[in-house]
Amino acid sequence: MIRMLSLPLALPRRHFCLDLIVAFQTPAATAAKRATNELPIVTNAGDPVGTGLAASLSRPGGNVTGVSGAGAELGAKQLELIREVLPAAKRVGALINAPDPFSRPLLAHIQDAAKAMNIELAPFMVRGADGLEAAFDEMVKSRTSAVIMQPSLPHELTAQLALKARLPSFSPNPLFPGSGGLIAYSADYEALYRDTASLVDKVLKGRNPAELPFQLPSKFWLAINLKTAKAIGVTVPGTMLTRADQVIE
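The chain above was modelled as a monomer; its predicted structure follows.
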């Protein structure tokens, strides 16, 4: 039997018994870990070591194992794509979901990459949907060239606000272009889900999460929304289009 639980997470043991929790993205995994140190947790999260979910990737050491989407490192990749699409870009905004523990390693990787590329990075700390409109207003006023979105933010709303502001938008969330965002470069989520399911199977058969290494992505996904590019007057290089896994026209 499968039960769907919502945040904030509570474990109503009187009503049903759980054998395992599957948690997608860092906020859910962190909430699950706070709720129990006994039940095995299998997660799909960006930086399990940097966010405190695991002691190390090879030996997690607690009740949490899973798949790392390498999202923090891919935050820096978004800057490379911005420079490829917008060679003259000097100022880039980063929409950071402050309550999400993943925000710290993600922002650190983006800041390091921005410094190396001589790009001014402007972080905008928001709390979910709260503050998104004000952040985009400020980006427009400050002549920001593009924006990077943290995956745990509401991608549909963020994509539409970026479109309204005519700001090229990038994210390590593969769903982002389908909602109107310009470009996403991420781990291949279908492969991540298969790896997650494999780990669930191993745990249910008796393997200890503390000794099950976190899996790393072996495939990556580049998605581009050409409709958005045309709407905001951006030309995506042909070389990028030829290597894209998905082009939305």
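The chain has two domains: 21-69+188-218, 71-187+221-248.
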